[in-house]
Amino acid sequence: MSLNGKTAIVTGSNSGIGLGIARELARAGADVVLNSFTDRDEDHALAHALAEEFGVKARYIKADMSKGEECRGLIEQAGACDILVNNAGIQHVSPIDEFPVEKWDAIIAINLNSAFHTTAVALPMMRAAGWGRIVNIASAHGLTASPFKAAYVAAKHGIVGMTKTVALETAQEPITCNAICPGYVLTPLVEAQIPDTMEKYGMGREEVIKKVMLERQPSKEFATVEQLGGTAVFLCSDAAAQITGTTISVDGGWTAL
Ligand code: NAD
């Protein structure tokens, strides 16, 4: 599955699933653009490390995915976009009648609106290049709900709907648009939920992982960022040229329940 000569932009990719996907795309030969809203030496070092390890071009571009103009600027600044992975995402847990408005707005902006802005700018570039792959990172929460995560569930259902729509709009072009729906993956986003959950249920870390998080995942194992990366590489391959407008669950059976 060679992606030599392709340029991949992965939003929100200085940690977790985004970094894992960027790594696997680079392993497959793609030049990669990493992104986040920070601009630390470590962010650029991540890109240099990928370039060195896989012999591809890799760079880091700072852009805040909560701001439409910066989403659009990211794609324009990259200058090419054969593969777009809309991955940036945040989470907040709260009953809906106590949900802070600014958290609702930020979750919808970063997890959903950003994909609209990046896709709108990337599509003409893909058309000009005669090839394109859009991979949206949704969630098991894009297919099923969960209490106290209204904004996240709404944004992830929204991105699944947008994925299908973009797929229909590009169906007769050499461009595909699909969503990956991960279950639990032990990334900084999930790590950040553990202390509150420990306090809420009076449980230790291992108990929270087993009884609260992996309880919903029939495999009883976390998916890994490498597995998510491998799924993204597959969706970018020629073997997946007729796969468009679909969701691929990487959730240990969660949504089969
Ligand atoms: P993470 O916290 O490790 O990564 C999130 C990334 O988004 C980071 O690189 C962060 O810098 C970036 N980001 C956050 N706000 C941003 C902003 N305003 N602008 C640009 N970048 C920003 O979390 P993760 O678990 O790797 O999550 C990645 C994606 O996977 C998210 O969309 C998340 O909803 C989804 N997801 C994660 C899980 C899981 O269990 N970890 C499950 C399902 C879906």
Layout of secondary structure:
Blueprint: E1 7-10, H1 16-27, E2 31-36, H2 41-54, E3 58-62, H3 68-78, E4 83-86, H4 101-129, E5 132-137, H5 150-169, E6 175-182, H6 188-191, H7 194-201, H8 205-213, H9 225-236, E7 247-250
Parallel strand pairs: 1-2, 1-4, 2-3, 4-5, 5-6, 6-7
Helix pairs in contact: 1-9, 3-4, 4-5, 7-8
Bound molecules: nicotinamide-adenine-dinucleotide.
Family: Belongs to the short-chain dehydrogenases/reductases (SDR) family.
Organism: Ruegeria aquimaris
EC number: 1.1.1.30
Could you walk me through the main structural features you see in this protein, from its secondary elements to its overall organization?
- The chain has 9 helices and 7 strands.
- With 257 residues, the chain is α/β, with parallel strands linked by helices.
- It folds into 2 domains: 7-184 and 224-256, NAD(P)-binding Rossmann-like Domain (Rossmann fold, 3-Layer(aba) Sandwich), CATH 3.40.50.720; 186-221.
- Strands 3-2-1-4-5-6-7 form a 7-stranded parallel beta sheet, sandwiched between helices.
- The longest helix is centred in the middle third of the chain and has 29 residues, at 101-129.
- The mean pLDDT is 97.
- Nicotinamide-adenine-dinucleotide binds at residues 12-18, 36-37, 64-66, 87-90, 110-111, 137, 139, 182, 184-185, 187-190.
